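Could you please consider the sequence and fold following this short note?
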Amino acid sequence: MTKPLADQIEDLLPQTQCTKCGYAGCRPYAEAIATGQADINQCPPGGQEGIARLATLLGRKVIALNPVNGVERPRPVAFIDEALCIGCTLCIQACPVDAILGAAKQMHSILPSLCTGCDLCVAPCPVDCISMMPVTGERTGWEAWTQQQADAARARHDARAARLARERAENDARLAAKAVAKMKEVTDEVTNTPEELAEKERKRAIIAAAMERARLKAAAAAPGKE
């Protein structure tokens, strides 16, 4: 069975998840190419070979990398200056492939073998303790990156996305349960004066509004929602 076009395109992308293409990751970029919303020359990590691969798949002419999206370069790896790191976790939150280890207020470490060189951890660092160091000599694009590395990076990215979605769902469930419990608590309050009744109804309205906002947020985030 032939794969959907977006899947075939995604298979040819380096899975660095760097967003330099202008999209939130390799998958959104693949979908944009498949629907004609993006061109094939917007992926600096893939470089000219990546463009050639996409051109072959789609029966298009090979074109130059769009300089708006960046330049083809040797693959870098992020390094953290341990003396400057304050343990803020912002780089951990930014890493799309879980290549950074650490905890709040503790020094973080980057796993070089897992880093895709996406640069996304650099900007959020409030103390500028992260630098990108080239590690592939003069090799650029797919010469500096293997299919095995790309496949592993995609697996880590997808696993991270699934974990974050699960954590959001669990947190939303906890908040919903707390809201239901609070609504019951307020509803069960005994009121003896019109003022107390008015205050009770005010609280109920606030809780009900919060529950409705949570419901609408969950509905908007549901899979397949346009």
Q: What stands out?
A: The CA atoms of residues 99 and 114 lie 5 Å apart. The chain has a mean pLDDT of 92.
